[in-house]
């Protein structure tokens, strides 16, 4: 008997429902001014769907960087970048962030490279060792995105 291997198509309906429910709760907390989750600062990233063109809101952990924010494109340790990253790359001119208890502010994303990325990565790893642990097990290098206010 030949065993079939099923190609993963992403999370199932239950996983998507759980993620949607958790994200809705996180967004409510951020909007009420609660800016921490698991010891990290959180924000809501506003993007536009790369295929649908519909507005998207994603609660994310970030590293404050002066007036800017640095995002780690980790996808929970997954092998590919999350959808929010593809949306951000497809429509960078339509991105904004919502910090706890504040109105959304337009931002410009910039992927960090070279020495600039290394300095930011050292700060991320020191602030959140669990992210560095995920990176050590991942089959890809996590991009770092700096969001600067427009």
UniProtKB/TrEMBL annotation:
InterPro entries hit by this protein: F420H2_quin_Rdtase, Split_barrel_FMN-bd
Pfam families per record: F420H2_quin_red
Superkingdom assignment: Bacteria
Catalysed reactions listed for this entry: oxidized coenzyme F420-(gamma-L-Glu)(n) + a quinol + H(+) = reduced coenzyme F420-(gamma-L-Glu)(n) + a quinone
Homology family: Belongs to the F420H(2)-dependent quinone reductase family.
Protein name: Nitroreductase family deazaflavin-dependent oxidoreductase
């Amino acid at each position: 008997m030949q065993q079939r291997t099923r190609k993963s198509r992403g999370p199932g309906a239950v996983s998507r429902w759980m993620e949607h429910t958790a994200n809705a709760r996180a967004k409510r907390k951020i909007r009420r001014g609660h800016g921490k989750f698991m010891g990290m600062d959180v924000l809501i990233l506003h993007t536009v769907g790369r295929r649908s063109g519909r507005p998207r809101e994603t609660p994310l952990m970030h590293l404050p960087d002066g007036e800017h924010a640095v995002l780690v494109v980790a996808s929970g340790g997954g092998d590919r970048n999350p959808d929010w990253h593809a949306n951000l790359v497809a429509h960078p001119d339509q991105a904004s962030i919502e910090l706890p208890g504040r109105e959304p502010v337009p931002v410009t994303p910039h992927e960090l490279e070279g020495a600039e990325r290394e300095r930011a990565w050292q700060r991320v790893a020191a602030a959140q060792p669990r992210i560095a642990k995920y990176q050590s097990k991942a089959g890809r290098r996590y991009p770092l995105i700096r969001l600067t206010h427009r």
